[in-house]
């Protein structure tokens, strides 16, 4: 197993008596993973104090590891201790049941396919027990070890070792077309015409759509709509850059997150988890969408994002 992660490449935060640690993984994982987030919170005092957290689509897949009391997905029940969270096309809501301990791995939009044997698009809008997707015994050993690890650095090292094992096991070749397409879509704030993009990449529309969906887990149109909304949410006063008018922006918000942009901000402040993970544009920035950034620039961007 690898050594401890570089904690100099980390940031921390405290919101509503809930602590967070953000770590940028070391190579080679840094080529695939945007960051590793740890959240810890004390026991919920009462049901009234435990507002559900609405997690919005961000265009990235995740793995979630629990080392506290079980989190509940509203309408579905208790979450498995180790979960693969496929790309979301609509919001999901979660509620803590006691002491919260979460470690979340956020993949770069084109990279989660390297760690799984299943096609990503088959996991769209699903939270799946990770033990049913990869080596179940390996997942169970990791889950047990995380429960008994005493420090965040130890938990991160355990998860990094697990991810390296998956990477060596599956070693899927990532599609450069998907990665290039993501860059173009993000640079244009989700406003590119998909037909024009496929022509630019030298592919027929159907072939491009199939390759993008296999590599990212969403259709190009679906991914673009999320990027477009996140870009507008980052600066709602400048939504005109991405939407024809405010009514189109509000319609997109209701479709993706179930409420208006103004109501989403209120929901974001209602829970500690929401305060941290649903900050506007928290996931769409140059921290992971620009592969040519060196570590010092990437860390500087992370620090600005957490301020």
UniProtKB/TrEMBL annotation:
InterPro entries: AraC_XylS_family_regulators, DUF6597, HTH_AraC. Residues 191-265 form the HTH araC/xylS-type domain. Keywords: DNA-binding, Transcription, Transcription regulation. It comes from the Bacteria. Transmembrane segments: none annotated. GO terms for molecular function: DNA-binding transcription factor activity; sequence-specific DNA binding. This is Transcriptional regulator, AraC family. PANTHER family: HTH-TYPE TRANSCRIPTIONAL ACTIVATOR RHAS (PTHR46796:SF13), HTH-TYPE TRANSCRIPTIONAL ACTIVATOR RHAS-RELATED (PTHR46796).
């Amino acid at each position: 197993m690898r050594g401890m992660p570089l904690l100099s490449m980390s940031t921390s935060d405290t919101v509503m008596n809930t602590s967070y640690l953000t770590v940028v993984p070391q190579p080679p994982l840094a080529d695939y993973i945007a960051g590793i987030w740890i959240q810890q919170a004390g026991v919920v005092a009462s049901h009234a104090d435990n507002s559900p957290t609405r997690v919005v689509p961000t265009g990235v897949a995740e793995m979630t590891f629990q080392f506290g009391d079980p989190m509940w997905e509203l309408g579905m029940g208790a979450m498995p201790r180790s979960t693969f969270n496929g790309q979301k096309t609509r919001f999901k809501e979660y509620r803590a049941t006691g002491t919260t301990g979460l470690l979340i791995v956020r993949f770069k939009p084109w990279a989660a396919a390297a760690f799984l044997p299943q096609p990503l698009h088959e996991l769209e809008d699903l939270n799946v027990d990770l033990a049913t997707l990869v080596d179940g015994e390996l997942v169970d050993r990791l889950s047990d070890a995380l429960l008994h690890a005493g420090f965040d650095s130890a938990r991160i090292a355990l998860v990094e070792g697990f991810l390296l094992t998956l990477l060596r096991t599956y070693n899927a070749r990532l599609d450069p077309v998907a990665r290039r397409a993501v860059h173009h879509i993000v640079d244009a704030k989700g406003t590119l015409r998909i037909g024009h993009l496929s022509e630019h990449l030298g592919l027929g529309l159907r072939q491009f759509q199939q390759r993008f969906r296999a590599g990212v887990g969403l259709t190009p149109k679906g991914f673009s709509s999320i990027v477009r909304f996140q870009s507008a949410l980052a600066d709602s006063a400048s939504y005109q850059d991405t939407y024809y008018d405010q009514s189109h922006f509000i319609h997109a918000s209701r479709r993706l997150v179930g409420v208006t942009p103004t109501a989403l901000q209120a929901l974001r402040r209602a829970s500690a988890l929401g305060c941290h993970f649903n900050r506007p544009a928290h996931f769409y920035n140059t921290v992971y969408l620009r592969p040519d950034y060196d570590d010092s620039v990437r860390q500087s961007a992370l620090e600005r994002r957490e301020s």
